[in-house]
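call fold target=VOC family protein
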Amino acid sequence: MFDIIHHIAIIGSDYEKSKHFYVDLLGFKVIRENYRKERDDYKIDLACGPQEIELFIVKNAPARVNYPEALGLRHLAFKVESVADTVKELNEKGIETEPVRLDDYTGKKMTFFHDPDGLPLEIHE
């Protein structure tokens, strides 16, 4: 019934910080960018392989509940060739990462970092 994920939607609070993080630091390419006057927000569509990330910039969105974790989407994970190389690149760009560990079930390396609004992002081999 389902082939692949078409897109994932992320809400950010600060246009400059969010766009800089996802485009300049993480390297996602902008497909489309639209200011939606009726909502006073931005919608930036980013390429992530064959999928898209919809980055909404909403000024007064409520803060994310992290601890304790709430129901719903827990985090977003990206497959990478090398967690060690990706961690090094992220750290060089000023993005802090958690210690690398092994996934208990796959035995693959993985770690987490956070976007400017605290959304957990994972890299996984």
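return ok
The first strand starts at residue 7 and ends at 12. The chain has two helices and eight strands.
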